[in-house]
UniProtKB/TrEMBL annotation:
Domain (UspA): residue spans on this chain: 2-139
Protein family according to the UniProt entry: Belongs to the universal stress protein A family.
UniProt protein name: Universal stress protein
Keyword entries, A-Z: ATP-binding, Nucleotide-binding
A molecular function GO annotation: ATP binding
Pfam family, one: Usp
Nucleotide-binding in keyword set: yes
Species the sequence originates in: Deinococcus xianganensis
Signal peptide: none
Length: 165
């Protein structure tokens, strides 16, 4: 495993997955990419729609602010920040994952069920069902496991790190 993608929407729940992804990346010496998804600022006025550009000074400032926040939250980690915009968060995450081809996607989840999930949907569920890579969902209150211990990932430390036949 060489690349881990962790998603966030900037909320505290969105940041839940960061320490878990960081622990895995450290243990596996994997690249860590943090994807921040921001809502599309499409404005509808009558028959017209205005869609602001995806790139520009504001977007660069957002990425820089995200990188600064990550440096505080994950001191000492080499983290790459990505920013994507879209109306459908699930689709945006799936598109970015298809482009970046991570070995693992890590996400925080509300853990809603029943009517809450039916009304609001579940980004995590949508990504988990359609992702091009395995997905690790982190619920609130889950402690960060000591991933770094030899054999802690359920694989004896001496096995090669390639695909399992």
């Amino acid at each position: 495993m060489t690349h881990i993608l962790v998603t966030t929407d900037g909320s505290e729940l969105g940041h839940l997955a960061l320490p878990h992804a960081r622990a895995l990346a450290d243990a596996l010496h994997a690249q860590l990419t943090v994807l921040s998804v921001v809502p599309d600022d499409t404005m509808l006025v009558g028959e017209f729609a205005y869609i602001p550009p995806v790139s520009g000074p504001d977007e660069v400032a957002r990425v820089q602010a995200t990188e600064a926040d990550l440096a505080e939250r994950l001191p000492g980690a080499a983290v790459r920040a990505e920013l994507a915009r879209g109306r459908h968060t699930t689709r945006v995450i799936l598109d970015v994952a298809a482009e970046l081809t991570p070995d693992l996607i890590v996400m925080g989840t509300h853990g809603r069920s029943g009517l809450g999930r039916a009304l609001l949907g579940s980004v995590a569920e949508g990504v988990a069902h359609h992702a091009p890579a395995p997905v690790l969902l982190v619920r609130e209150g889950q402690p960060v496991t000591a991933w770094a211990a030899p054999g802690a990932l359920g694989v004896p430390a001496g096995l090669p790190s390639g695909p399992v036949a």
